[in-house]
Amino acid sequence: MKKNVTDSFVSLGHWPSAGSFGLNTDILATNPINLSVVLGVLIFFGKGVLSDLLDNRKQKILNTIRNSEELRRGAVEQLEKAHTRLRKVEMEADQYRVNGYSEIERDKLNWINSTYRFLEKLESSKNETILFEQERVINQVRQRVFQQALQGALGTLNSCLNNELHLRTISANIAMFGVMKELTD
Rounded to an integer, what distance in angstroms lies between the CA atom of residue 45 and that of residue 182? Predict the structure, then answer.
């Protein structure tokens, strides 16, 4: 006779109560019974423990998600602040760059103007020095020409004048001075 699993459960109710306690060696008949008893005990007693474990795990996961969301929000805020600061620093850098270029150009123009003024003063000083040297040379030439003319005139007078002419010239000059003195008195 062939037994199936449902027959084993049904036959539990038909066991003789008088008897002895024995070992059933029929594996196919006893395994489902043992498994169903163990599962029933586990479900009955372990239901609360398993539920508590699952609830605790659920709470930890939810707390972790909440903490992660808060950290993400904080990171997003810090990122936005960093972006704002970066834009501000970039604007300041651009301003410094523009001011720096303007200052460099201003310094360059000031240097060029200063150099131009210095060159103008140098040119003016050069021209004044040239004029001064020209006047000095002209005066030297005049003095030499005058000295040479005077020496030439004296040489001509000395060669042309003899003692008699010389004495007459001196006498005429003395007479002329005498007349001039009488007129002024």
Answer: 169
Is there a domain that residue 26 lies in? no
Is residue 55 assigned to a domain? yes
Which amino acid is it at 100? Answer: G
What is the domain range of residue 40?
Answer: 33-176
Instruction: Decide if 129 is inside a domain.
Output: yes
The secondary structure of residue 13, as a DSSP letter, is T
pLDDT tens, residue by residue, 50-94: 788 889 999 999 999 999 999 999 999 999 999 999 999 999 988
Q: Residue 162 half-sphere exposure, CB side, CA atoms within 13 Å?
A: 1
Between helix 27-160 and helix 5-12 the angle, nearest 10°, is: 120
Could you read off the pLDDT of 11-49 as tens digits, one per residue?
444 444 445 666 666 666 667 777 788 888 878 877 788
Between CA 76 and CA 182 the distance in angstroms is 124
Output phi, psi for 123, to 5 deg: -65, -45
Number of domains in the chain: 1
Single-letter residue type at 94: D
| Whether the Cβ atoms of residue 9 and residue 33 lie closer than 8 Å to each other | yes
Whether pTM > 0.85 for this model: the answer is no
